[in-house]
């Protein structure tokens, strides 16, 4: 006898009235998942030029704090993560788990969690990504169909695929019937059986041909009983890369979706288009060919279903899809720029949820992993068109009510909501469906955001007196009744309560109710009498039903799980506050029903004479002290909690105080003395905010040091924090920070002979304040006069050497600065000397370069003056206050053409002090430059003859030599256009004087291409006839002119029609737009008629030896044939280039009469006559 093990939970609390499912609602939130690393194009195409390998990530989130573990048992991979409420925890799956090939592998990915979590799986690389929401093990079924799409991609070797993962322990037998041929050699529509252990995966890949492949839609995957029972399996479908909606392969993306078991399919779906690219594709999956399917109220003909299995349509509207039997609907986003969409995007596949498989709360992820170009995120929501439902809808805690009525079904409303990347929580008092999706440049993702996934045909239920929920609801020791519903009529039902309650055996059970679900009849069987719930706890319960249907899995159905009995509603509350005087105390109820049972009433005594009925009230207390808060709650199934009490002590605030120790100078340390206190308790810490953007947190009660980087008014605050966390009001003082003077003075250049050294004070201060100066000249030999307080003092030094000079500057606000500089008292005997690096004579366009070679007997030079035109222009001077030996100085005199040369006196004065200096002079001669004039050159044609350039001239008569250079030019100035480049040719004229001074003048020679013309061959045109002159020409945009124009139909046409009345010579001239021209002539003979001789005597006497027709040499189209009287052709010539000599093949013909035929051209008449050959 076969068995089937179905998991369920019975949640028992207080007495309610409604009949609901036994156990929590099954949804995409769970504690146990089996997943696979689906096929991707980069598993087959990662050769040269391809991007990096794809990656897989799991995104795990929850509405509670919990811990999750991801493991791949066969590889040893295991990772535990902390899950934070409403945040995404990411796990990178190693590529060793990727399903590269068709067939069996041990690569199942197992996710477990301590509390229910939501898991998303994302496979991506660059712009090829796909995502799916994952289904927990307790929602899985045993019968699935793969839903894919027509396989066309912009890359080769991309397959339609599906794979199955064994989720139960033991051996799972899976029957697979592929709808098309597979890469593993499986035949279309031929079932085969595979045996899987828990965590094993079997993948099927459709065959490919180039960038096309088979569509595996309609492949069936089901768990069958081969002796170990029917086990749960997980099935995923998709494509390694696919293009959708284009005539040829457009942008492509991978598809990756977890399939829903057929038991969760239903009869009504509402499909809403994507917001950015509204034109979508849809497939309606209908395994039962007798189903009547409607789209927006219109019946879909049975003939419209491909393979009698699915119906595909497309559009940009909202669609109501209905059937009298269970169906499934898939929605597809097309490739970017295809199917009339103009926005960004890429292919994606989403399995939609029916309107009766909904949730009231969904946590989902708007995805954006690194390297994936998703730019916009959206949510499509469908819910009942009920005012209360719409008003209760929340997105991340905020109300959203911009819903529209679904066209064709006003019982439902929908919204298309733009959102942002990240985790989002949606809630509503009534069930809703949501699709999450996003688009980028050639990129997309999409998945059903969450669904209730319950077996619509086989479930248990609980009834009690006060139930108001759609799941188990009763309290400890409360009476309740149990029932179970099957899609068949069992022969016996056995309830085993494991001694917690009396077992019940229904040997001939009679159903107490039956009804239709999706066209299938179900039957409910209720345990006789009322059962009393035991004490709170968890108890195993088993229901075994036997049947003679014999479908391989339902001959014996065994349901086994824990019976969870909850106590009366447990309640506690938390207090959130610093418990400081004046703070708001926030009270948060902590309701613990043992199940998802909402609280409906609250009672609070706040301990200060106030009460509240709010779920989470707040309170304030006016005096320090201890207060007692009491609270109780009633849940929605009537469980009244015990009264919870907590005490709260309201603590006093500390008093912050401080004083300031100056001087208050920018950039200098300032002391802040802490004088804070508290009435009771102690101060645990202090926070200083100095008002300049800097803060200090310290538990040091002592003096704090701080410096302000700039001057100004600063408000400094001190806040004290007590050991209970109570924060004082801030103590504030305004701090006026003054500027610090910047000490500065110039070191005089002094020698021993100077009467004194004078110091120029350059001290600055950024504010108005009096300054006080204190000098120390560092002269131990002059102790009496070694200090001074003048602003700009003087001091006489008695010996050469180094002296440290110190200046201390104090402002009126006590801000001070000190500067120490070294003064060297130099010797009194400097020696000025320099050299001219470019020599004593040079061209006027060159810079004069002077090298300093001066020195002093002791110390160093303190200044050097260099006069470049001494005695003439004193402004042409260079002063160096830090002269160094071998320093180089540069000066550029204005270049000139006249006179032939100029002389300049260079004078150097070297100082070792104010009164110690030395002078040196030298004279330099500058030569004039040649003055050139180069006038504009004429335009040239490439066929022009050689041209002598005379436009370049020397203007100032300096002796020397000049020459030309450039394309097509000889040094002597002969320019040949044919040797130059077409276009602009720079021509340089260089002239160098006998002194070696050079000038260059440049002009441009523009050369245009000359045309080439051929007037055609000479011709014979009989008077009254017209022929085309076969002229030709080479060149761009040529103008033509024929002269004379007599007898021509168009003198500006290259090939005119000619009909001369007399012999004529015509000239054709072709001219370019630049004015370059060429000409050629053609001669035309215009005889009135053709003269044909009627005899000739080829006897070798040189007279009339050949039969020759005049003018035929000029007629290329002429043809002559001569025949003997018996019709044998003895002579033929085209063009009449060779006259007839009376011979045939070199042998003389006999004398006699012969017949000739002559045509001047193919269009002219033929002349016929006789000719006599006389020997």
From TrEMBL:
InterPro entries attached to this UniProt entry: Ig-like_fold, IgGFc-bd_N, PKD/Chitinase_dom, PKD_dom, PKD_dom_sf, T9SS_type_B
Classification via SMART domains: PKD
Taxonomic lineage of the native organism: Bacteria, Pseudomonadati, Bacteroidota, Chitinophagia, Chitinophagales
Signal peptide: 1-23
Domain PKD stretches: 600-650, 679-725, 773-814
Protein name: Gliding motility-associated C-terminal domain-containing protein
Keywords: Signal
Pfam name, any one: IgGFc_binding
């Amino acid at each position: 006898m076969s068995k089937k093990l179905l998991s369920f939970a019975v949640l028992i609390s207080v007495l309610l009235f409604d009949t609901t499912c036994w156990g929590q609602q099954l949804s995409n939130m769970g504690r146990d998942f089996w997943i696979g690393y689906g096929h991707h194009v980069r598993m087959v195409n990662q050769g040269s030029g391809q991007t990096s390998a794809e990656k897989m990530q799991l995104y795990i989130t929850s509405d509670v704090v919990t811990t999750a573990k991801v493991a791949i048992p066969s590889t040893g991979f295991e990772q535990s993560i902390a899950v934070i409420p409403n945040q995404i925890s990411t796990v990178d799956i190693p590529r060793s788990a990727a399903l590269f090939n068709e067939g069996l592998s041990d690569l199942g990915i197992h996710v477990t969690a301590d509390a229910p979590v939501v898991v998303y799986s994302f496979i991506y690389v660059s712009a090829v990504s796909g995502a799916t929401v994952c289904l927990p093990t307790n929602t899985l079924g045993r019968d699935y169909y793969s839903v894919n799409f027509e396989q066309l991609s912009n890359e080769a070797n991309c397959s339609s695929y599906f794979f199955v993962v064994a989720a139960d322990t033991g051996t799972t037998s899976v029957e697979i019937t592929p709808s098309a041929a597979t890469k593993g050699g499986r035949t279309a529509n031929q079932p085969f059986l595979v045996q899987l252990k828990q965590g094993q995966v079997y993948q099927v890949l459709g065959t490919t041909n180039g960038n096309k492949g088979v569509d595996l839609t309609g492949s069936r995957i089901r768990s069958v009983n081969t002796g170990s029972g029917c086990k749960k399996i997980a099935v995923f479908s998709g494509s390694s890369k696919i293009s959708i909606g284009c005539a040829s392969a457009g942008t492509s993306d991978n598809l990756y979706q977890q399939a829903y078991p057929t038991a969760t399919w239903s009869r009504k779906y509402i499909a809403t288009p994507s917001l950015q690219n509204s034109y979508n594709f849809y497939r309606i999956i209908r395994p039962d060919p007798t189903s009547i399917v409607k789209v927006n109220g219109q019946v879909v003909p049975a003939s419209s279903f491909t393979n009698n299995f699915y119906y595909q349509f497309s559009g940009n509207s909202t669609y109501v899809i209905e059937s009298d039997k269970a169906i499934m609907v898939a929605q597809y986003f097309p490739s970017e720029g295809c199917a009339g969409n103009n926005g960004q995007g890429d292919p994606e596949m989403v399995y939609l949820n029916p309107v009766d498989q909904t949730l009231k709360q969904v946590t989902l992820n708007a995805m954006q992993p690194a390297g994936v170009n998703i730019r916009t995120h959206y949510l499509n929501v469908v819910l009942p068109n009920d005012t209360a439902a719409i008003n209760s809808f929340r997105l991340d805690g905020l109300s959203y009510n911009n819903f529209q009525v679904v066209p064709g079904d006003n019982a439902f409303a929908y919204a298309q909501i733009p959102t942002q990347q990240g985790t989002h929580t949606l809630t509503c008092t009534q069930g809703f469906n949501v699709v999450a999706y996003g688009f980028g440049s050639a990129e997309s993702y999409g998945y059903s955001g969450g669904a209730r996934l319950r077996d619509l045909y086989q479930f248990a239920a609980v009834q009690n007196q006060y139930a108001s929920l759609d799941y188990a609801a009763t309290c400890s020791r409360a009476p309740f009744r149990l029932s179970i519903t099957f899609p068949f009529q069992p022969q016996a039902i056995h309830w085993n309560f494991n001694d917690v309650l009396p077992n019940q055996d229904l040997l001939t059970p009679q159903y107490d109710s039956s009804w239709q679900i999706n066209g299938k009849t179900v039957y409910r069987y209720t345990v006789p009498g009322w059962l009393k719930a035991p004490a709170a706890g968890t108890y195993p319960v088993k229901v075994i039903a036997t049947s003679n249907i014999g479908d391989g899995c339902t001959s014996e159905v065994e349901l086994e799980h824990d019976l969870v009995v909850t106590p009366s509603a447990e309640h506690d509350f938390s207090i959130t506050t610093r418990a400081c005087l004046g703070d708001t105390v926030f009270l948060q109820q902590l309701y613990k029903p043992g199940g998802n049972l909402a609280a409906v009433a609250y009672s609070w005594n706040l301990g200060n004479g106030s009460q509240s009925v709010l779920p989470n009230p707040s309170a304030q207390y006016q005096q320090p002290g201890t207060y007692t808060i009491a609270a109780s709650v009633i849940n929605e199934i009537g469980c009244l909690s015990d009264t919870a009490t907590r005490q709260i002590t309201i603590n006093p605030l500390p008093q912050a105080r401080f004083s300031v120790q100056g001087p208050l100078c920018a950039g200098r340390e300032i002391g802040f003395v802490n004088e804070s206190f508290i009435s009771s308790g102690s101060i645990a810490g202090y926070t200083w905010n100095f008002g300049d953007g800097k803060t200090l947190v310290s538990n040091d009660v002592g003096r704090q040091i701080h410096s302000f980087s700039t001057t100004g008014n600063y408000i400094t605050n001190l806040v004290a924090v007590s050991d209970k966390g109570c924060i004082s009001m801030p103590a504030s003082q305004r701090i006026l920070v003054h500027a610090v003077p910047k000490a500065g003075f110039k070191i005089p250049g002094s020698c021993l002979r100077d009467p004194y050294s004078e110091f120029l004070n350059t001290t600055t201060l950024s504010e108005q304040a009096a300054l006080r100066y204190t000098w120390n000249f560092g002269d131990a030999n002059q102790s009496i006069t070694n200090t001074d307080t003048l602003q700009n003092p003087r001091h006489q030094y008695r010996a050469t050497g180094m002296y440290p000079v110190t200046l201390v500057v104090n402002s009126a606000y006590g801000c001070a600065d000190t500067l120490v500089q070294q003064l060297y008292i130099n010797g009194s005997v400097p020696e000025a000397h320099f050299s001219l690096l470019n020599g004593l004579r040079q061209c006027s366009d060159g810079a004069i370069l002077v090298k300093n070679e001066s020195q002093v007997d002791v110390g160093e030079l303190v200044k050097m003056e260099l006069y470049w035109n001494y005695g003439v222009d004193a402004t042409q001077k260079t002063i160096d206050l830090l002269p160094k030996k071998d320093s180089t100085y540069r000066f550029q005199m204005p270049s000139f053409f006249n006179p032939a040369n100029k002389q300049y006196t260079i004078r150097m004065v070297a100082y070792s002090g104010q009164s110690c200096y030395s002078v040196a002079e030298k004279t330099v001669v500058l030569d004039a430059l040649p003055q050139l004039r180069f006038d504009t050159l004429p335009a040239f044609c490439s066929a022009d003859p050689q041209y002598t350039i005379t436009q370049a001239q020397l203007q100032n008569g300096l002796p020397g030599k000049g020459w030309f250079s450039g394309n097509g030019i000889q040094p002597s100035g002969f320019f040949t256009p044919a040797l130059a480049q077409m276009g602009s040719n720079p021509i340089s004229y260089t002239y160098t004087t006998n002194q070696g001074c050079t000038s260059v003048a440049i002009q441009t020679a523009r050369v245009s291409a000359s045309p080439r013309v051929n007037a055609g061959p000479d011709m014979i045109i009989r008077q009254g006839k017209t022929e085309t002159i076969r002229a030709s020409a080479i060149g761009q945009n040529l103008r033509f002119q024929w002269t004379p124009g007599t007898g021509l139909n168009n003198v500006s046409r290259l090939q005119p029609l000619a009909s001369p009345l007399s012999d004529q010579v015509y000239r054709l001239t072709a001219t370019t737009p630049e004015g370059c021209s060429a000409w050629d002539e053609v001669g035309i003979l215009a005889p009135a008629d053709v003269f044909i001789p009627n005899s000739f005597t080829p006897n070798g006497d040189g007279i009339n030896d050949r039969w020759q027709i005049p003018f035929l040499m000029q007629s290329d189209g002429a043809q002559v044939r001569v025949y003997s009287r018996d019709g044998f052709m003895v002579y033929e010539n085209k063009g009449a280039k060779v006259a007839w000599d009376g011979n045939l093949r070199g042998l003389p013909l006999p004398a006699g009469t012969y017949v000739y035929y002559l045509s001047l051209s193919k269009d002219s008449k033929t002349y016929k006559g006789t000719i006599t050959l006389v020997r």
